[in-house]
Amino acid sequence: LFDLSAYLEDRRALVEAALPRFLTPAGGFVGPLVAAMAHSLFAGGKRLRPILCLAGAEAVSPGGKLELEPLLPVACALEFIHTYSLIHDDLPALDDDDLRRGQPTCHVKFGQARALLAGDALLTEAAVLCLNPEFGNGVGPERLMRAARLIFQAAGVNGMVGGQDVDVAAAGRQVDLATVEFIHRNKTGAMITAAVGAGAILGGGDDGQVQTLMDYGADIGLAFQIQDDLLNVEGDAAALGKAVGSDAALGKATYPALVGIEAARDRARELARRAAGLVEPWGEAAAPLAALAGYIVERSV
Ligand code: FPP
Ligand code: MG
Asked: Residue 112 and residue 283: Cα distance in Å, rounded?
């Protein structure tokens, strides 16, 4: 049986060791800005998107074996983009949250102006990380370009930012399930899908494999946000390192608000089962992805 917790621990350590190589504390005039970026980037987090990227590459590699080092810049770029989105999401103009990853949010600690710019800078540095032509060891410029395009498309209007905008517009209004699903698939699902898809591209997957892993990503991406909604209703704030109950207070468009807790949980589990079913025929190489699908809907943090 596949040992997911050992796998997650190992991959998380790899990402934790790589992140400081790509964001080194700086002195001089930009020192305070980099400190604000580092505050949020190094505050913890599951590092799920980088891990999904690595797992996507492993899934298309014979026996699940490949050298992970060349993938780390793109894997870490995903975490830069994710962290930027959290910093901006927590700002008073959006969710107005004080706590994230168990730490004061970036704007609480550094002020709104610097938090806004720290997010901007993380997004921009993510592009610099992805588009490094020195990237060696078999990940050539062609794969890199395709992976980067996938990631930045997912981050933009037709993905995370677009979904977030619809989410903001829906707050306090009565919306239907199709709208909630659009929001979830875009604000959260798009980057999760791109993480797995970019991994598949970097790992040398063929078009069919990349498509299968994008379908897998779309399912677990929606399931992930439904579980996030559920944890906001019934999760433990101390363990989560962020506030609970805030979605209801803000009148947010969530799955449990619309269909109830039981139906939301059933839907998340059904999506996870379907996702796992897509990769199970690949055997050992995709064992991490199959296990991750279950983890995403059973997690408590
Ligand atoms: C928690 O991730 C975050 C989400 C479920 C995503 C919600 C979507 C946004 C915040 C998009 C905001 C977009 C903009 C443009 C402001 P996680 O549970 O993986 O957190 P962790 O990394 O701390 O573990
Ligand atoms: Mg929020």
From this structure: 48
Query: Relative to the CA of 82, which ligand 1 atom is closest?
Result: 22
The predicted model scores a pTM of: 0.98
Specify the pLDDT at position 136. 62
Mutate to test the pocket of ligand 1, among 47, 88, 89, 120 (most ligand atoms within 8 A of CB): 89
- The whole-chain average pLDDT of the chain stands at 96
Question: Cα–Cα distance between 44 and 37 in angstroms, integer?
Answer: 13
101 lines ligand 1 (CB under 6 A): yes
- Cα Rg for the chain, rounded, in angstroms? 18
Residue 225 alpha carbon, nearest atom of ligand 1 = 5
CA distance 273 to 282: 15
Per-residue pLDDT band for 26 (boundaries 50, 70, 90) equals confident
Tokens of 169: 């517009």
pLDDT in tens, 38-73: 999 999 999 999 999 999 999 999 998 999 999 999
The pLDDT of 112-119, averaged and rounded, is: 98
